[in-house]
Design brief:
heterodimer; A: alpha+beta; 5-stranded mixed β-barrel; 3 helices; B: alpha+beta; 6-stranded antiparallel beta sheet; 4-stranded antiparallel beta sheet; about 65% helix
């Protein structure tokens, strides 16, 4: 093979490998992703067996502990619809009533069964909160 | 004083715009005086931002709460170290830090290149001026760090307790130095494209800046990981959080850039690739700065909504458009000087390493922005978790370490297979022996990726070792020097090369730590009462007794209350005592009650780690203070109006109650093998990078000499 043909063949090979890898990237990300939903979404359309990433605020006065299990409700960021959550695992430091949290898991009956250690609390935006109150 | 600060910023904005304008005008009309004036304006800019920073810092040190920033991010009882560093815990303050670092870096590079790169430098000055003007405009227009309060409070809110960690305080300036540093090669790349000087001059002039930026960014990322490991209370060092990823992205493309520029310097190839890489790196650095504060992605770091998101998006879009436009416009000038001779050549390996690094960056980028991508395509936000990242990045990381091992063995232009076999024989033998030993003697074979990483790291070590041995031996054979002198002369004369080898070694050590700790860590979460025990890996852990300290936080974070536990950890005959604790910081929220506000504020884990080369034993505690709710409520009622001393006594009594009637506490313990290797590897990388970047005395002399001879030659030809 003369050099220019060889180069072209190499280029085509490299490009097709790149396309394949990109395809794998796109496919794997869509198949492995979990949907972010608000409590009202989960209440309305939540199907058992599917994974959701629930985001919202911890409802006031809803946090209780039963043994290792942490029970609380997550409500819509700007609303009152809320979903009871049952969670086991490490609770992040800034977890507090009224804070924004993210937790992934599945719907079982009426409660949201959270995946172990999946609870994430957003860094305290206490400065902005305080400002709003003032 | 705040007026002085604001004035500095406004004047600085004008000066930055002037610097850009004067340089461009001077470059277009070939009026040298304007170019010089533009350059001096950048020095002036540095003076102004330094003054502004000094004004702000002195306000923090004096606890001058008429500054809104000081009232929001500091307090009189904040320890001095955290007062100094509180500036960059806020959005406005970190913008000032950006502008400060940028103007200092720009001054340095323009000073160093004042007698060279006469065509490129004015345009680079203009680019740096525009970038500085953008950040100054953000502050002057929207986020002024010198905003004052008409009714200053008596006491400030205090620095966010989660940030009260030495690593976290050094981390932002390190990251920013990295981000800002990459704007220097970016600016010169733009200048090179505009003036069609697409050789390697701009690379040589800014290579060291790129290396410094890369080093700082790396150190910043490491400190962030260390903070996560010791402060966040979950025991990991990397979570693929958007903000972590944002700092990794420019580091990955920057790493690629540092490698691929060598191909342009040596062979005049990959010109399009190099300018594209540095432009991508700069844009990613901007995105990194923006993401932390924007709140567009769900992140534990979302510090509330930002007011300057739109401005950032516009500027990033502008940078992308200008970059792509310039590259397309100058495509004819970016033709390569040489062709790839063989796939078995140093340049081919560099190209391969670049492709892997860029692929890694693409994966991380895609995963980080996946919520936005999926919302755009499917209409719902969805995200990919750490398992997805791990699955995709692990093979790429393995290939990367493999290339780091073999690459340095491959000669420029081409090598023969037999030549490669000769130079790789001993290293491969060593690596295989190590692999077999690890597989037989440890449980390393339980995880195939980890085992592969062990083998590849061993290959890196042996290749680098062989290079050092061969080089020293060759030197001794010709000069007859004693071993230590031969070694130091060898390294001293080829700093870039041997510095690079040391960096490779450090990266391999780091990946050893990552592989071992992620594949073989054992985690245990339990809830037990004092006197009870549990088993965590080979360790027998007993909760001996609770602790309750007041005002005696050993970490110096200024926490008034700290509840913890004494753990006895036994492995074989060895007994260790660990003291994990949880710090409680008061909130200013009056609704929590006079006493309750001391318990209801922020709380942070103060983990205790038994560091070790072979493994770390990591412990965190989460005391259950719900049993104190009753007494706290009662105290709130009875002592609402009491003075500070009385409240102190009451809090002491409540703490005493916790100590005497301790409820069960939740513990997390982690036995994590070889985590320390990550930090050690980072240190080795830093050493190697310093070595590679340190100017060699001879090189400096050579540069001065060549500069003078070039000027002499120019004058002679112009006269002739």
């Amino acid at each position: 093979m003369d050099p220019s043909k060889k180069r072209k063949a190499r280029l085509i090979l490299a490009l097709s490998v790149a396309v394949l890898l990109a395809g794998a990237l796109v496919y794997s990300s869509f198949s492995a992703s979990t949907e972010a939903s608000t409590p009202s979404d989960v209440m309305k359309h939540g199907q058992p067996g599917r994974s959701y990433e629930l985001t919202g605020k911890v409802a006031q006065g809803s946090v209780t502990r039963r043994g290792d299990r942490l029970l609380f409700s997550i409500r819509d960021r700007n609303g009152h619809a809320s979903v009871p959550v049952s969670y086991v695992g490490v609770v992040p430091d800034p977890f507090r009533e009224g804070r924004e949290v993210i937790v992934s898991g599945q719907v079982r009956g009426k409660t949201f069964q959270a995946k172990r250690d999946s609870l994430v609390t957003k860094c305290p935006s206490k400065f902005t909160e305080d400002k709003k109150k003032a | 004083m705040a007026g002085l600060g604001s004035a500095c910023l406004t004047v600085a904005l004008l000066v930055a715009v002037y610097a850009a304008g004067a340089s461009v005008y001077g470059a277009v009309t070939s009026k040298r005086a304007w170019v010089v004036s533009g350059r001096r304006a950048v020095y002036c800019l540095a003076g102004l931002t330094i003054t502004a920073t000094v004004v702000l810092q002195s306000a923090f040190l004096r606890s001058d709460f008429s500054f809104k920033l000081v009232a929001d991010g500091s307090s009189t009882d904040t320890p001095t170290f955290y007062k100094v560093t509180a500036m960059w815990a806020t959005q406005d303050g970190s913008l000032l830090l950006w502008a400060l670092l940028l103007s200092i870096f720009s001054s340095a590079v323009l000073f160093l290149t004042r007698r060279s790169l006469r065509e490129i430098a004015p345009w680079a000055t203009a680019v740096l001026g525009v970038v500085a003007a953008f950040f100054l405009l953000l502050m002057v227009g929207w986020e002024n760090p010198f905003t004052t309060l008409t009714n200053p409070p008596a006491e400030g809110v205090g620095l966010n307790p989660l940030l009260r960690h030495p690593a976290m305080m050094i981390h932002p300036p390190m990251l920013y130095t990295g981000y800002v540093g990459f704007s220097i090669p970016f600016a010169f790349a733009v200048g090179a494209l505009i003036t069609r000087n697409t050789g390697a001059d701009w690379i040589r002039a800014t290579r060291r800046f790129a290396l410094v930026a890369w080093t700082f960014l790396g150190v910043g990322i490491m400190l962030g990981a260390l903070w996560s490991y010791t402060e966040l209370g979950w025991g990991g060092y990397w979570a693929w959080d958007p903000v972590e990823n944002a700092s990794l992205l420019p580091w990955l493309t920057g790493t690629a850039f540092l490698h691929s520029v060598m191909v342009q310097e040596k062979r005049g190839m990959l010109k399009i690739w190099n300018v594209s890489l540095i432009m991508a790196t700069f844009v990613l650095a901007l995105i990194g700065t923006f993401l932390v504060r924007s709140g567009i992605l769900q992140s534990i770091h979302a510090f509330g909504a930002s007011t300057i998101g739109t401005q950032f998006v516009v500027f990033i879009a502008l940078a992308v458009i200008v970059s792509v436009g310039l590259v397309v416009w100058r495509l004819p000038d970016l033709r390569t000087d040489a062709k790839l001779d063989s796939l078995l050549s140093r340049e081919a390996f560099f190209l391969l390493n670049n492709l892997v690094l860029v692929a890694l960056a693409l994966v991380v980028f895609w995963g980080t922005f996946f919520p936005l991508i999926s919302e755009a395509i499917t209409g719902t936000q969805a995200s990919v978790g750490p398992p997805w990242f791990n699955r995709l990045t692990t093979p790429l990381a393995l290939v990367l370490v493999g290339l780091a091992a073999v690459g340095p063995m491959v000669a420029w232009r081409r090598v023969t297979l037999s030549g490669l076999r000769r130079s790789l024989f001993w290293p491969l033998l060593f690596a295989l022996t190590a692999l077999v030993a690890i597989a037989l003697l440890t449980n390393g074979a339980d995880s195939l990726p980890a085992l592969t990483m062990f083998g590849l790291a061993a290959l890196v070590f042996s290749v680098v070792g062989q290079e050092f041995i061969r080089g020293t031996a060759a030197r001794r054979a010709t000069s007859g020097e004693p071993l230590p002198r031969a070694l130091s002369a060898l390294v001293g004369r080829n700093r870039r090369r041997y510095g690079g080898y040391i960096v490779h070694t450090g990266i391999a050590v780091l990946f050893l730590g990552v592989a071992a700790s992620s594949a073989f860590h054992q985690q245990k979460d339990v809830r037990i009462s004092p006197g009870q025990s549990f088993q965590s890996g080979d360790y027998h852990v007993t909760y001996v007794r609770p602790t309750a300290r007041l005002g005696l936080d050993p970490g110096g974070t200024g926490a008034p209350i700290s509840f913890g536990a004494v753990l006895r950890v036994r492995k074989g005959d060895q007994v260790r005592i660990l003291h994990p604790a949880r710090n409680f910081y008061p909130t200013q929220d009056a609704s929590k009650g006079a006493i309750g506000r001391y318990f209801e504020g922020e709380a942070t884990s103060e983990v205790d780690v038994r560091w070790g080369l072979r493994r770390d034993f990591w412990a965190a505690v989460r005391p259950d203070i719900s049993s104190l709710d009753g007494p706290i409520r009662e105290a709130n009622r009875k002592f609402a109006g009491a003075n500070g001393d009385v409240q102190g006594l009451i809090i002491g009594a409540i703490a005493e109650r916790y100590r005497r009637h301790p409820p069960p506490a939740t513990f997390r313990t982690i036995v994590s093998p070889m985590v320390s290797w990550i930090w050690i590897g980072g240190g080795i990388v830093l050493l190697g990078a310093l070595l590679a970047g340190w100017p060699a005395p001879e090189a400096r002399l050579r540069r001065v000499r060549s500069l003078y001879s070039a000027r002499l030659g120019k004058e002679l030809t112009s006269r002739a």
